[in-house]
Amino acid sequence: MPLWPICLPLQDPSSFGLLFDIDGVLVRGRTPIPAAKQCFRNLVDRHGKYKVPVVFVTNAGNCMRQTKAEHLSQLLEVSPDQVMLSHSPLRIFTQFHKKCVLVSGQGPVEEVAHNLGFEDVVTIDMVREAYPVLDVVDHNRRPKDFPIRWETNLQLIIDVLLTNGNLGNTWSSTQYPHIPVLACNMDLLWMAEAKNPRFGHGMFLVCLENLYKKVTGYDLKYEALIGKPSVVTYNYAELLIRQQAEKLGWNTPVKTLYAIGDNPMADIYGANLYNRYLQASKHTKAKVQAKSCGGGADPTAQSVDDHREDLPEACSSILVCTGVYSRDQQELPSDPAQTVTEQHIFHGHRDFRFDPTLTQPSFVVQDVKEAVELVFQQEGWPLE
């Protein structure tokens, strides 16, 4: 009897993708975390090419994707299309791209805005120069290359909101609802080289919201809140993962995303919130399909067309202990059910309803090397 070669099916390569936070996971400021270099040995082949789709998701937004990719390339070769900054999802807000927009932030904000698709861009410095009497902050106190003073930005943004963009006019609290506001990066705290966390852009939003409320009596409203833990951010990250999977030649959908981060209130909360969204999407599709098969219709269900058929099945959250979270300083509840009744300080944004169960990670590991090893074990992939 002839012996025919036996062809065993290879491990399905399209089963998972990785979302890496950067600060506190891969680096502290500009210093790489030692475990980061070690973890990438499992992610690339002997030619230095990625084995699995990888996207680096950060709430930082003070540079271009190219700059962040070059910074990360001291660890491993990273391309700009693998990098997602807090403002990256603004590319899909095309309804605002032809409008005149005021941009506030750090870094090359005008260049960033144009790169995202905005055509008519005004910066805080442009407003300050055009209306010098509006800004009474002493700029001589600001050292060169020091982060921008919040006073100027807070003052001029309030001016724009209360004059509907006509800065020659007087304030009017009747300008409500105000012109659209899109905010990127809600992080209250983040981890750099300092031993303790530093104030993030979320602190600026807290100041802006409270100033607006104090002056007008109204709540500041956002057209969109972008950056972790927003579902918008994870939807966009998943789009980048699919693009990376296509470059690897994978032909079937990514089934599971693993989001690795150091901040329970941003990385973990966001990944779990996105997982909840994925489960709700599956449930809605199942309900619509069941009703359709039965000849009936569910008026409360969204159309199946509102949910892609190739969405991931789940998003698992992995918490590392090299950044904002430390086992020595914080204790996660052993029983997620207990978190509902316990008192917690919520560092998340005002507009996000606090659900303590969403701060509970799927897994807790020491560092990013252990995180990658855990994922490979979960997926049955060999370790180097």
Automatic annotation (TrEMBL):
Pfam families: Hydrolase_6 (PF13344). Transmembrane segments: none annotated. It comes from the Eukaryota. Gene3D superfamilies: HAD superfamily/HAD-like (3.40.50.1000). One of its GO terms (biological process) is glycerophospholipid biosynthetic process. GO terms for cellular component: mitochondrion. PANTHER family: CDP-DIACYLGLYCEROL--GLYCEROL-3-PHOSPHATE 3-PHOSPHATIDYLTRANSFERASE-RELATED, HALOACID DEHALOGENASE-LIKE HYDROLASE DOMAIN-CONTAINING 5. NCBIfam families: CECR5, HAD-SF-IIA. This is Haloacid dehalogenase like hydrolase domain containing 5. It comes from Poecilia reticulata. The lineage of its organism: Eukaryota, Metazoa, Chordata, Craniata, Vertebrata.
